[in-house]
Amino acid sequence: MTGKLTIWTLDWVPEGPRGFVRDLRLRWAAEEAGLSYDVRTVPFEDRETNHLDRQPFGQVPYLADGDLALFESGACLIHLARRSENLMPRDAGGEAQTLQWVIAALNSIEMVSVPWWFLKMSGQADNALAGWMEKRLAQVETVLGQREWLVGGRFTVADLIMADVLRVPDVRARGGRPASEAYVARLTARPAFRKAHADQIAHFAAADKARAKP
After folding, report:
1. Strand 5-10 vs strand 68-71: parallel, antiparallel, or unpaired?
2. Domains of the chain, start order
3. pTM above 0.90, yes or no
4. Which of 11, 90, 182, 196 registers the highest number of CB atoms within 10 A of its CB?
5. 210: alpha, beta or left, given left = phi > 0 and alpha = psi -120 to 50?
6. Residue-wise pLDDT tens for the chain (214 aa)?
């Protein structure tokens, strides 16, 4: 596919999640790849039901590439990676290893860290998932202590998604993982991340002003 990219997100969110809404993952990937894209929105109000025809779980982001429509940030990232060698090597082995680490970030780390975070936010800071999460984070720390990048000695979309999972402040605050911290700092210093992050913050700030008008 070589159609026009459109990244869909919410028109507004409260202060807390800004900079972490997952359309940022797609913005970041497109910036790394040099792919032009538009950003369109669905209303924050009734967000769980107002776009079920395009995202059956009522979440964002979702992606349009010409006539192709995709949801789930991981699936969208893999699709974008197949459009640019900046995001994924073109040899079969490099592609397979990149996909392996994309899935690991989502299925082995975020699958634990997000439920842990929700329990923490509900007042259960030392909840039953804490030990499991600490184990997974320690395992990633071992890997990152041995290499700069996850695949092939270079940046890939696997690093993008792993860093986005690890950069959540409550996860970083667990501490004691210098290799992971250096990795997150290195990834979030990239110009493509900085632009994607700034653009998302500006998007929601503009929405504040629009909502404030009588």
Report:
1. unpaired
2. 5-85+192-212 (3.40.30.10), 92-190 (1.20.1050.10)
3. yes
4. 196
5. alpha
6. 567 899 999 999 999 999 999 999 999 999 999 999 999 999 999 999 999 999 999 999 999 999 999 999 999 999 999 999 999 999 999 999 999 999 999 999 999 999 999 998 888 877 889 999 999 999 999 999 999 999 999 999 999 999 999 999 999 998 899 999 999 999 999 999 999 999 999 999 999 999 998 7
Comparing CA positions, the residue from 1, 146, 20 lying closest to residue 83 is 1
Spatial contact of 209 and 45, defined as CB atoms under 8 Å apart: no
**CA of 13: how far to CAs of 19, 22, 206, 214, in Å?**
10, 12, 11, 19
Q: What residue type is 199 in one-letter code? A: D
Class of residue 21 by CB neighbours under 10 A (exposed 0-12, middle 13-18, buried 19+): middle
Cβ atoms within 10 A of the Cβ of 196, count?
A: 23
- In sequence order, what DSSP letters do the residues of 109-127 get, joined into one string? IIHHHHHHHHHHHTT-TT-
Q: 41 - beta bridge partners? A: 9
Helices (H), the chain: 23-33, 73-81, 92-104, 111-121, 130-144, 157-166, 169-172, 178-188, 191-212
- Cα–Cα distance measured from residue 39 to residue 6, given in angstroms and rounded to the nearest whole number: 6
Q: 71: part of which helix (H) or strand (E)?
A: strand 68-71
